UniProtKB/TrEMBL annotation:
Keywords: Isomerase. GO terms for biological process: isoprenoid catabolic process. Its EC number is 5.3.3.18. This is 2-(1,2-epoxy-1,2-dihydrophenyl)acetyl-CoA isomerase.
Length: 265
């Protein structure tokens, strides 16, 4: 049996690959449970400083596997339970202090949008399309879409996306701030490979710079809604103090000070 999600760690980089290409990486029970397990492991490992989330096949993630729902689920309680399992992985990524980049080629729709929103930096292809489409089958947003979409693009745009049968183009997704970059590819190349290569480049940049600092910066932004303004200022002060005592900052601060003194001299 093929693993529904692939997991590999090398040189500080964890790669999570959705692997149900025949179903456009839509979630069934097998993928849901594997997703919860793998994401939890990835964010809990001391040797992981950055995470890449990508996918096999022609699409990133089509959300929930509607065919599987129709054939195997007897009622709403089944979908409720499955969403809870997938939410374990979404929370693992968003609440961690490890930066996550998505390589989201092809189409992202439905719950796949929530999976995309659980990453911190998203790269898509110039031919990618992104949408909600829940109401097309009479369902409502889940997997963090209602929790995170408005924070990402603003309330009015979030409403436009969930209240219309609409797929954003790559250019629109970048303009809205839903994703960071849309990459192109030269003739004969693979857009999926180009998207993955750019995502890897970003993750390697984090790892080659100050991964703990980038991770804490991500955590500060992600966790802000749970604090008052005063508490956020206090948490910033605590975090930068802790960072100053760490190896990443110690070397870099000393190097910066030495270079500044040399320029003045």
């Amino acid at each position: 049996m093929t693993d529904p999600i692939l997991f590999h760690v090398e040189d500080g980089l964890a790669r999570l690959t959705l692997n149900r290409p025949q179903r456009l990486n839509a979630f069934n029970a097998d993928l849901a449970h594997a997703w919860a397990e793998v994401t939890t492991e990835a964010v809990g490992r001391d040797d992981v400083g950055a995470i890449v989330l990508d996918a096999t096949g022609p699409a990133f993630c089509a959300g929930g596997d509607v065919l599987d729902m129709a054939q195997t689920m007897t009622g709403g309680s089944d979908i409720h339970e499955l969403a809870g399992v997938i939410n374990i992985g979404i929370r693992a990524l968003t609440e961690s202090s490890i930066p996550v980049v998505a390589a989201a080629h092809g189409t992202t729709a439905g719950g796949g949008l929530g999976i995309l929103l659980s990453t911190d930096y998203a790269v898509i292809g110039a031919d990618s399309r992104i949408g909600s489409l829940y109401a097309n089958i009479g369902l409502t947003p889940d997997l963090s879409v209602s929790a995170q979409l408005a924070q990402a693009v603003g309330e009015r745009r979030a409403l436009q996306l969930v209240l219309q049968d609409r797929l954003l183009s790559a250019d629109e997704a970048v303009e809205w701030g839903l994703v960071a970059e849309a990459v192109t590819v030269e003739e004969g190349g693979s857009i999926a490979d180009a998207v993955r290569a750019r995502a890897d480049e970003i993750a390697r940049f984090w790892l080659g710079s100050a991964p703990r600092a980038y991770g804490q910066a991500k955590r500060l932004i992600r966790s802000r809604p749970g604090r008052s303004f005063a508490d956020q200022l206090a948490e910033e002060a605590r975090t930068i103090g802790a960072a100053f005592d760490g190896d990443e900052a110690r070397t870099r601060v000393q190097d910066f000070a030495a270079a500044s003194a040399k320029r003045r001299g």
